[in-house]
Every structure is written in structure tokens, then in C-alpha cells.
Design goal:
4 strands, Growth Hormone, Chain: A, single chain, 61% helix, mainly alpha, transmembrane helix
Length: 607
């Protein structure tokens, strides 16, 4: 964490974080300098007072840097690190727990130095099906978490509820793995599925709000100009600040994931699954403790009522007279330049009573819907990323592991991220800036599709040579196969590093895009919609289950590579015009709305 603070501070040497002279500017409005949380919503624009805003020429020519990051964000990062330790420390065990049989003479599932850990013996297809469903479940429940936070409970309270629910799920997972239960596969499977469902619900409620809460600790949203100690005028860009917050937020996630995965796989191999499920539960208890410690210091955004209903009614109102029996004409009408303009309150002669918002809020809703349109393509990206969770673990079991647990290799992904994120932040992105290459959010996402495809090509080639060198030939993954390929398991490194790079480009940028493009009172929901795309990716993965058997695994990886590459091309073609508007969308004025009880209760059928 010390190195993390050095990287994020305003005094680092790279171009994005060069120290700026703020003596003539108003300092960052933190919790100690600004109003109470109850008053924060009323004075949001105070954080922009006295700042100098760039001219159009300066906006196009001046170098851009990051602002300082408020310290409460670090507390929230600790909560996320503990939660990800518990999540990944458990999930990394699921494939072996379900797929592999209980070792002879074991009542804990431990395989020992030379054996394969396992418990239920259900095979690769069942293991992939159950773990993929778990991923689907964990990424569909954020929709509920986002709605509850934005509408009723607020982000802080929703996170606290999520922690309680997930803790109960973790306890049930422990029960499914205790020696007296694990020796009865059907009983263990029943308890395991119940624990998995409850844990997934808690995870979903948590994920849609924690990443939004951390970015909300930084409140500036407008570009402003400052002078560095070297006398250079530069632009402090809030979008870059949020981008860096998510970069290091993701780094902290992977620190937790790496520690959880490594320690739990060894606990599984040498002690048993009951210990591997118990330790993440113990670490998880850090979450409520840190949330309690920091509760008075966080910048809270209170719930604002059913703004989703209002946004939907706004869309229906804007679409009046634009429907046609010709689908192409309807599509063109819905994408017309005046679609949202015609629905702004200032354009209405007889303004409906439910229009309790201003023109700027309409622009924010438009921006949020455009962001959701970008997310439509993400399931194709997740299809390649999801191979990391179970298929590459199973592939490792058919290679020479040199005494390592087969599921420990998956830790190459978080390990690579921990190394690459600071390198990208300190060198790659600033270098691209200096040579005037605008590696925008949508370009980064496109690059994520490409590197995800490259990772699958690597995996397909490895699988091809496994079939050529395994003593079982094209039946290398069969439970009856007594040998493994002589190829070292470290050959998988290329797949994991490429997947890690794709995460930096696509996954981290997706978090950034969801936060910066969502209306203030819909941030958790838009973040949940982004996370929900992972559920669709998991559903797509289910369609590939018939390929998850010998000798078709090479086709599995190859077809995913082709789909990801094609998806990246189509994605860029669909968003390239939106990419030109990036600066404009990031710097829209913040809108305002008032949600009245009457507007909450009105039936949509009356629109």
C-alpha cells in the first residue's frame, strides 16, 4: 500500500501526476474541508469555485494530468481487497471441488504433494456448468443491488447488507466441505449449491456499489487549468483522475485475489477444502470493520427515489411519433439528432407534471443510455475472459505441474496485473500522451477485445500440443487418464498475461466508463448494467459446453478467439462516432431533478 500511495500521489514524476501549484486555486474539497455529507449534494459545484477553466484552444493543446485522490478512497479499497480475497479464494477452488473425485483415503479432499485434490467427482462439464452459472448469478444480482442503492438504501447501507448476506453464504460453503459432509457427495453438493447462491447474492449487491462509492470520493467533474512547479500550464482532467482511481482500485482487487488464490490452493492441496473455505471467511470479516471505521468520512450520495421510472418515461416521451412498421426507419428515428432535444423541459409548451428535472438531466440520461449501448458488446469480451476461471485450470491439470496445484497457475493473471497496471499508468499511457496519441476509453476497450482474442489463440495452440504429446492422446482430459503431457504448465503464461492486458484495456475501462457516463442518481444502476454484461458472457459460455470435452477443446479456444476478434471489429465500427464526443460527454453540466411521491407511484401505463 505504501508504493500504491507513492504512485497515486500528486508528486510522482510521470506526466499524468506531476505536482501542480495549487496555491492560487481552491484546494480539493475533502471531508475535512467541505460540508457535511448531508449538505454535500447541495454544494457539489463548490468544488469548482475559483478554478480556472480552459479555453477551447487550451482544451485541445494543453497536456492533461491527474488530480490528487482523497484518502477515504483508500479505506474503501481495503474493503474491496478483503472481499475479493474471500471471493477469489473460494471461487478458485470450485472447479476441483466439483470436477475431481475425493482422493483415496481422504475425508478432506486434500490431494497431497503428488495427488489431485477433489471432492465430488462430477467431471469437467458439470464443473464448468456450475461455475459458469455461479458467475451468471453473481453478475445478474448487481441489478438488484444498484436499484436498491439508488432508490431506497443508498450505497453505504446496501454494501453493509451485502456483507451480511455474503457472510452467511461463506459459512454454508464451509459446512459443505467439513469431513463428515464431504464424504457424502450428494449432501455436499446440495449444501455447496445453497452456499454458492447466497454468496453470489451478497457479491452482486456488493459489486454494483463498491466501485461507484470509491469513485464518488472524488467530486470534481470539470476540466480546469493549473500551473506546475516548472511553470507549465496543464489541464487537470477529472476523467483521468477517475481512470487512475479505477486502475489502482483494480490493482488492489488483484492483490486480494492473488493472496487468496495462492494460499487457498495450497490449503486445499495439503489440508483440505474445509480450511480453504474457512480462511476466506475469516478475512471477509475485515469488511464490516473498515466500513464501520470510515462511515463518517465517506462522501455519501443519498438515494433519490425511483429515477429509473422517470428515465424510462422520458424515453417513451421522446420516442412519440418515431415508431414505424419499417424497422430500419424506426431505428433511424430513434437515433436522430433531435431525439433527446425534443424531450427537454425547455422545449415543452405544456410541460407534464412528472417532468421534475432540467435540460441537463436529459443530457445525462442520454449519456447514460449511450454508455449502456457500449456495454451491449461486452458479453463477447467476457466470453474469452471466462476461459480463465475453469477451462484453463482444467488444461493445467493435463500438463506437467512440477508439484504445483493445477489451479495455482490461474494466479498468473492477478500477478501480471499487479506488475502491469503501474507500468501502464507510469509509462505506456503518459508516453502515448506525449506523442499525441489519444488512446481514449473506447479505443482501449477495442484493444481489450484484440488481446483477449490473442490469449485464446495461445490457449488453442497449447491444447493442440497437449493432444499431440499426452499419453492419452485426444482423451487427455478423461478422468481415466493416468498420465499428463510432458509440456510444462508454465507454457500457459502467455494466455494469462494476454488476458491480464485485456483486463486493463477492457475491464478497468468499463468501470470508468460506467461511472463517468451515468447520471449521478443512477450510478449504481448503470454500474450494475455493466456488470450484468458479465452474466450474459457466462450465458454465452454455457453454449460452448458441448465443446468442453475431448477432442474438441482446441475448437473451443479457437472459436472463442475468432468471435472475440470479430466482436472487437464490430464494436469499434459501432462506437467510433461516439469516441469523437468523449470530451463533450465527460464535461456535461450536472442536471437536477426532484422525485415526488406522486411521480413515484404513477403507473407507467399512464404515460
Amino acid at each position: 500500500m505504501a508504493s500504491l500511495q507513492m504512485d497515486i500521489g500528486a508528486e510522482t514524476r510521470d506526466a499524468r501526476t506531476e505536482e501542480v501549484d495549487l496555491k492560487k486555486e481552491k484546494p480539493y474539497l475533502g471531508q475535512d474541508e467541505g460540508p457535511s455529507n448531508k449538505e454535500a449534494d447541495d454544494v457539489t459545484d463548490d468544488v469548482h469555485d475559483v478554478l480556472e477553466f480552459p479555453t477551447e484552444e487550451e482544451r485541445l493543446t494543453l497536456r492533461r494530468i491527474s488530480d490528487k485522490i482523497p484518502w477515504p478512497a483508500y479505506l474503501i479499497a481495503i474493503v474491496e481487497m478483503a472481499e475479493r480475497f474471500s471471493y477469489y479464494g473460494s471461487v478458485v477452488l470450485f472447479t476441483n471441488f466439483i470436477q475431481q473425485p475425493l482422493p483415496d483415503g481422504s475425508n478432506t479432499g486434500a490431494g497431497g504433494p503428488n495427488g489431485q485434490s477433489g471432492a465430488l467427482g462430477k467431471g469437467l462439464q458439470t464443473a464448468s456448468g456450475v461455475t459458469t452459472f455461479y458467475q451468471f448469478w453473481a453478475y445478474i444480482t448487481p441489478i438488484l443491488g444498484g436499484y436498491l442503492a439508488d432508490t431506497y438504501w443508498g450505497r453505504f447501507n446496501t454494501i453493509c447488507v451485502a456483507i451480511g448476506v455474503a457472510f452467511v453464504g461463506h459459512v454454508i460453503l464451509i459446512l459443505s466441505a467439513i469431513p463428515s459432509v464431504i464424504v457424502h457427495p450428494n449432501n455436499a453438493m446440495g449444501a455447496f449449491v445453497i452456499g454458492m447462491l447466497i454468496t453470489g447474492l451478497g457479491t452482486g449487491l456488493f459489486k454494483s456499489n463498491i466501485s461507484t462509492l470509491i469513485a464518488e470520493q472524488y467530486r470534481r467533474r470539470k476540466l480546469f487549468v493549473v500551473t506546475t512547479k516548472k511553470g507549465e500550464r496543464v489541464i487537470v482532467d477529472p476523467a483521468y483522475t477517475v481512470s487512475r482511481m479505477y486502475m489502482y482500485f483494480y490493482l488492489v482487487i488483484n492483490v486480494g485475489a492473488l493472496i487468496g488464490r495462492v494460499t487457498m490452493t495450497y490449503a486445499e492441496k495439503y489440508v483440505g477444502f474445509y480450511l480453504s473455505f474457512t480462511l476466506p471467511t475469516a478475512i471477509f470479516l475485515i469488511c464490516p470493520l473498515v466500513m464501520l471505521i470510515g462511515r463518517k468520512h465517506y462522501n455519501h450520495t443519498p438515494p433519490n427515489g425511483s429515477v429509473v421510472t422517470t428515465a424510462f418515461r422520458l424515453w417513451i416521451y421522446a420516442s412519440r411519433g418515431r415508431w414505424s412498421w419499417n424497422p430500419w426507419r424506426t431505428y433511424k428515428n430513434m437515433r436522430a439528432d433531435d431525439f433527446w432535444e425534443s424531450a427537454k423541459p425547455s422545449k415543452q409548451q405544456n410541460r407534464p407534471g412528472w417532468m421534475t428535472f432540467d435540460d441537463q438531466w436529459v443530457d445525462e440520461v442520454r449519456r447514460g443510455i449511450k454508455a449502456c449501448g457500449v456495454f451491449v458488446w461486452y458479453p463477447i469480451y467476457w466470453l474469452s475472459y471466462n476461459q480463465l476461471n475453469n477451462n484453463l485450470t482444467s488444461q493445467a491439470a493435463t500438463l506437467t505441474v512440477h508439484g504445483l496445484p493445477n489451479d495455482v497457475l490461474s494466479n498468473l493473471d492477478p500477478f501480471a496485473l499487479i506488475i502491469l497496471i503501474p507500468l501502464f499508468d507510469a509509462f505506456l499511457y503518459p508516453t502515448l500522451k506525449r506523442i499525441h496519441i489519444n488512446f481514449s476509453a473506447l479505443k482501449r476497450i477495442t484493444a481489450g477485445f484484440a488481446t483477449g482474442s490473442a490469449a485464446m489463440i495461445w490457449a488453442a495452440v497449447v491444447q493442440h500440443y497437449i493432444y499431440k504429446t499426452s499419453p492419452c492422446g485426444n482423451e487427455a482430459n478423461s478422468l481415466g487418464c493416468d498420465g499428463v503431457s510432458p509440456i510444462t504448465v508454465w507454457v500457459q503464461t502467455g494466455s494469462y498475461v494476454l488476458i491480464a492486458i485485456s483486463e486493463i484495456f477492457a475491464s478497468i475501462t468499463g468501470l470508468e466508463y460506467a461511472f463517468t457516463k451515468a447520471p449521478k442518481n443512477m450510478r449504481s444502476l448503470v454500474m450494475a448494467i455493466y456488470l450484468f454484461t458479465n452474466a450474459f458472457g457466462a450465458a454465452l459460455s454455457e453454449a460452448f459446453l458441448p465443446l468442453l470435452e475431448d477432442p474438441l477443446l482446441t475448437w473451443n479456444y479457437g472459436s472463442v478467439a475468432i468471435i472475440s476478434a470479430f466482436g472487437g471489429i464490430v464494436f469499434w465500427l459501432s462506437v467510433r462516432k461516439l469516441d469523437v464526443q468523449e470530451d463533450h460527454l465527460n464535461n456535461l453540466a450536472e442536471g437536477h431533478m426532484v422525485v415526488t411521491p406522486a411521480s413515484n407511484k404513477e403507473d407507467l401505463e399512464k404515460v
